[in-house]
Amino acid sequence: MTSKLKQELRSYFKDDSLFQSDYYLKDPNDNTLFGIKQPYWDMFYMGDGGELTEKDGEPARSAAIHSSSMLAYNFFSWINESNPFIYEGVKYDKVVFEEHLRVLEYGTSDLIHFPKSTATANLDVVLAGTNKEGKTSLLFIESKFTEHLSNARSDLNNMVLSYSTPECYFDNGIAWASLVEAWKDRAKSILPKGYYNGIKQDICHLLAISNLINGHTRDWFNKEGSTGDEGSWLKKIYSLSISGDEEIKFRNVIFSPSIRYKADAQDVKNYRSLYSLFEEDVKRVIPSNLEIGLVTYAEIWKTMEPCITNESLKRYLKERYISYQ
């Protein structure tokens, strides 16, 4: 991200006393319009990445003005039964954040051959609702604010050995491990440019969603009254269980700076091109009924704005985010 964009994102805040450092607020609640409400506070507190608490001496990630989790919270937390979001023919009236899904059946270890894996993927947002046919529809979302405005690739290069070991997967291990190795090899090259770390994230996300669709982790996901190690927020908050008949989609939703921020706009272009290559590859591995894609927050806003009845929230989202896209 360029300093120009970062400084202009910072300029939205008129009160310098809110900040603990240049781009980190003292209180994550000030990174939202109405504060982080329950049960969403618990979701972020129990999620990955130190969203609400300091970690290794670093500020809480949700305190950053460029926090992708707070971008997602501000855009989607208003959704409920009284205020649904109509998107792509689905009436979404339920939302959870920081949802965990299992990725691998086994890990690798020098001491134990293929021990049971507890690894999970962390999905930023899950929307649930009903499509035109009356079927339950789930939309899993990965939110990106500014992290994709780079060519970072270390996370992909350093994926643990389990992802390159076919025996560690619930099924289709050869295809998944081959996909990982192919993209690790691609990340070693100078070209094409793009945010390879985002490819690593979505390999994990799409693997986890595939496991759910194929029934391998459905019982784990449907556990009553627990989250984190077992169980889902969808089950805990809405008593929503997965049966296998649902319509399931995945969207990588990214912040897309306008051409006024030339270098940042180029980074978005690079990432979209890279992601198109990834989509071609991963569609050969994921279930055929899993619909995936990349979309910008500005594109979603065109559909979302008419659904929001709170004028203060509309104004906030426009001034804080949309005006830069």
Helix percentage? 25-40%
Distance between the termini: 14 Å
Instruction: State the strand order across the main sheet.
Output: 3-4-5-6-7-8
Whole-number count of domains: 1
pLDDT < 50 runs, ≥5 residues: none
Q: How many strands? A: 8
What is the mean pLDDT? 94
Global Rg: 19 Å
Shape, per Cα inertia axes = globular
Order of secondary-structure elements: HEEHHEEEEHHHHHEHEHH
Query: How many DSSP H or I helices?
Result: 11
Largest sheet composition: 6 strands, mixed
Structural class: alpha/beta
β-strand percent reads: 15-25%
What descriptors fit this protein?
single chain; 325 residues; globular; 6-stranded mixed beta sheet; 17% strand
Task: Give a structural overview.
- This protein has one domain.
- It is 34% helix and 17% strand.
- The protein has eleven helices and eight strands.
- The protein has helices spanning 3-10, 40-46, 68-76, 154-157, 173-187, 196-213, 218-221, 233-238, 262-282, 297-304, 311-320, and strands spanning 19-21, 24-25, 85-87, 90-102, 120-131, 136-144, 247-254, 291-296.
- It has a six-stranded mixed sheet with strand order 3-4-5-6-7-8, with helices on both faces. Strands 1-2 form a two-stranded antiparallel sheet.
- Helix 5 (173-187) packs antiparallel against helix 6.
- It is globular, with a radius of gyration of 19 Å.
- It starts with a helix and ends in a 5-residue tail after the last helix.
